[in-house]
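Thread amino acids onto this structure.
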């Protein structure tokens, strides 16, 4: 039974204290009526005896201690779901904002998700093709994986996210259903318009469910947005047997919203002012990726975060790296050389890549080729360091070859147009074309049988 209360005990930023409450529970959703007409929603974030602390999603403007009617709903935050969500745009708490009316709800789910029995998880297999060589060839994204993109302020991660949405597919000639859930947190209006326009103009909008929390939207709403998006993804994957790619941008905005609310609650801060439960909150989101036994669908996550001051040891990328299965790192130096996408190959990795590539998945030479490209590009760095000391003219012939390879690799393999969508065969063939710059005897990471077939230099 829903219980109603008149008046509030105190207001502090987005938080409200209510005394004299009965049978309230953590994460319960609360309805407010302000001045008898304005409706707002909140959720209980703390309960102590007969006191409850409530986060207000829409902010506490116009609310006072005397003009607010509060009703405890008796259930946690829920969202109505159906396949009609694809092709639609929602705000951060799952309400349609595209003027196309409400969706026809088939099921209602708790946004916090259901605990997934680890025994029922299946090991991620198969790959998702992004059409971007530096990802597909060297840090392949596997279905059911969580693979974050570490970026920095001013780097083109928004453009990269939009390109992945436009180009992503299951690869090959499969007839399985594939869709994308895109959630943006704390983005500016021009960035939100860029995403909307890009998806519509490229014709992919009809298989994208988009959740937008704008920079001027309430901070508290930002904490719900990724949960709402992942709930929609889980429904489409596990109820409708679809393969879903979830793109979350920007996880730094999510973490900073958490820090702001934690500070309002008077909690003792941890590293860099973030709450001590930042790790568990991030893990709660990231671990909602995966494949469930007996279900044809999968949830794959590609969270994007901007590293403050390009510091990869900052708590947000640091904790993300502990939870996820690799990372794709964007590089400011490559961006300065007008190379797009500026993916820094050497610190990037995909820990599950080996199990979703090779014969039967991509091509039998994929793993050996990737190993050789990593090895050769590492030697490019050594040759460049040597050239900076003794001069390029004094280098040995083989070091000059590595410099030539490095330049071509960055411009042609890492670099590609923002609308260039490469097949996996094109990516692999280009890798071999670049390796032919080097003498055959330098390619010591490739099986001789594969080398005989693909190295025709």
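Threaded sequence (457 positions):
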């Amino acid at each position: 039974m829903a219980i109603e209360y008149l008046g509030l005990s105190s207001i502090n930023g987005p938080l409200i204290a209510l005394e004299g409450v009965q049978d309230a529970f953590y994460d319960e959703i609360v309805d407010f009526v302000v001045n008898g007409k304005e409706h707002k929603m909140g959720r209980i974030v703390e309960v102590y005896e007969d006191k409850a602390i409530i986060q207000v999603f829409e902010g506490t403007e116009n609310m006072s201690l005397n003009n607010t009617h509060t009703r405890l709903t008796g259930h946690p935050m829920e969202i109505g779901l159906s396949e009609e969500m694809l092709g639609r745009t929602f705000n951060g708490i799952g309400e349609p904002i595209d003027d196309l009316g409400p969706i026809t709800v088939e099921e209602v789910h708790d946004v916090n998700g259901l605990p997934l029995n680890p025994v029922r998880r299946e090991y991620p297999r198969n790959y998702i093709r992004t059409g971007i060589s530096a990802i597909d060839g060297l840090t392949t994204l596997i279905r059911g994986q969580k693979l974050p993109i570490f970026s920095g302020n001013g780097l083109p991660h928004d453009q990269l996210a939009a390109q992945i949405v436009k180009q992503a597919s299951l690869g090959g000639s499969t007839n399985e259903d594939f869709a994308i859930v895109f959630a943006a947190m704390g983005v500016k209006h021009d960035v939100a318009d860029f995403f909307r326009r890009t998806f519509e103009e490229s014709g992919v909008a009809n298989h994208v469910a988009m959740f937008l929390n704008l920079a001027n939207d309430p901070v508290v709403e930002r904490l719900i947005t990724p949960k709402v998006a992942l709930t929609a993804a889980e429904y489409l994957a596990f109820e409708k047997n679809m393969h879903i790619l979830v793109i979350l941008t920007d996880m730094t905005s999510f973490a900073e919203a958490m820090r702001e609310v934690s500070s309002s609650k008077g909690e003792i801060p941890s590293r860099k002012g973030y709450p001590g439960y930042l790790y568990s909150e991030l893990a709660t989101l990231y671990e909602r990726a995966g494949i469930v036994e007996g279900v044809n669908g999968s949830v794959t996550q590609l969270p994007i975060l901007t590293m403050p001051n390009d510091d990869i040891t900052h708590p947000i990328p640091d904790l993300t790296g502990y939870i996820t299965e690799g990372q794709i790192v964007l590089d400011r130096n490559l961006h300065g050389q007008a190379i797009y996408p500026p993916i820094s190959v050497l610190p990037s990795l995909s820990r599950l890549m080996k199990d979703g590539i090779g014969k039967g998945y991509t091509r039998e030479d994929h793993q050996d080729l990737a190993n050789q490209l990593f090895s050769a590009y590492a030697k490019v760095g050594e040759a460049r360091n040597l050239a900076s000391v003794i001069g390029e003219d004094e280098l040995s012939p083989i070091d000059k070859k590595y410099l030539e390879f490095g330049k071509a690799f960055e411009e042609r393999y890492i670099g590609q147009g923002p609308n260039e969508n490469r097949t996996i065969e094109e990516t692999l063939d280009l890798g071999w074309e670049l390796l032919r710059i080097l003498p055959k005897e330098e390619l010591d990471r490739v099986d001789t049988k594969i080398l005989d077939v693909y190295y025709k230099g």
